[in-house]
Design a protein that fits this description.
Length: 287
């Protein structure tokens, strides 16, 4: 697969219209689901095992999208196949009272993986760009006037986030970011399914409809967000989210590529440790 089709290059004037929301038909989607994705997930599992055993590096995965685009399903169908002890999944909502008492990146520490772990951020620090631009959320935050009145606050947050992700990378934690590029028609279809299916109604939130009313505003903000923070050390991938299984396939392939670049290795066993293992083997065989 040519991942460059979905990867955003640094310093490019990205527009979401440059990327298709659907690239294959339903029959090809079935092929992806049944034949191509399973062995790729298995390869990801093997690489994660090495990452865990080595315990020197980690990966931070950012998932951003409007609701019903496929974030939860990527976690359910792909990442749930990984070893749970070295997988950390954190979902972020509006900042709570305690979080608002700190700087806006403070709460991200909760979702950061340990060395040897993969950390999944279901929404992330990018909400602190999206919410102020879409919902004027800064007005209700306990910030000093010199910050609230600063017209450059969003530009500064782009700088903060770029520096934060570079800091993570330089400390051994690779960052990979996925944006689920979905059409309004497909979102309508999926939201209606949630509303009309009793087994899925619990997933629906009225905020989904409120966000949908601001569809064009969201697209502009997402474009700006991706354009300002696409970096070699923390790349964005734009997934064709109307193709649910193909999106999962692209995301899994990108994860495999990241882990291959990290090249984790099983730790070498010293002579002393090998002697202890041999002794344990003999003891077990003699039981």
């Amino acid at each position: 697969m040519d991942l460059s089709k979905y990867k955003v290059a640094k310093d490019t004037e990205t527009t979401l219209s440059d990327y298709k929301v659907k690239v294959i038909n339903d029959e090809e989607e079935t092929l992806i689901k049944e034949e191509l994705l399973p062995p790729l997930v298995e390869e990801l599992q093997q690489l994660q095992t090495k990452l865990t055993a080595e315990a020197k590096q980690g990966v931070v995965v950012v998932l951003q999208a409007l609701d019903a685009a496929g974030k939860d399903e990527l976690i359910e169908y792909v990442f749930s196949n990984l070893m749970p002890q070295s997988l950390k999944i954190t979902s972020f909502d509006k900042p709570n009272e305690q979080e608002l008492k700190h700087d806006y990146l403070w709460r991200m520490a909760e979702g950061m993986p340990e060395r040897g772990q993969i950390g999944i951020l279901n929404r992330s620090h990018y909400e602190e760009i999206i919410a102020p631009l879409i919902h004027d959320s800064l007005e209700n935050q306990p910030l000093p006037d010199r910050i609230k009145d600063d017209s450059e606050i969003i530009q500064k947050r782009f700088k903060h986030i770029n520096n934060y992700e570079e800091y993570l990378y330089e400390n051994g934690f690779s960052v990979i970011k996925f944006y689920f590029n979905m059409s309004p028609e497909k979102q309508k279809e999926r939201l209606l399914e949630r509303l009309t299916n009793p087994e899925k109604q619990w997933e629906f939130s009225y905020s989904d409809i409120e966000d949908r009313r601001k569809w064009d505003e969201h697209q502009k903000v997402f474009e700006k967000m991706i354009r300002k923070t696409a970096n070699t050390h923390a790349p964005w991938y734009i997934l064709p989210a109307d193709n649910a299984w193909f999106s999962r396939y692209v995301a899994t392939a990108a994860m495999v590529e990241v882990l291959k670049d990290l090249n984790p290795q099983f730790p070498e066993i010293s002579n002393e440790e090998q002697k202890k293992m041999d002794k344990a083997i003999d003891e077990l065989k003699q039981e």
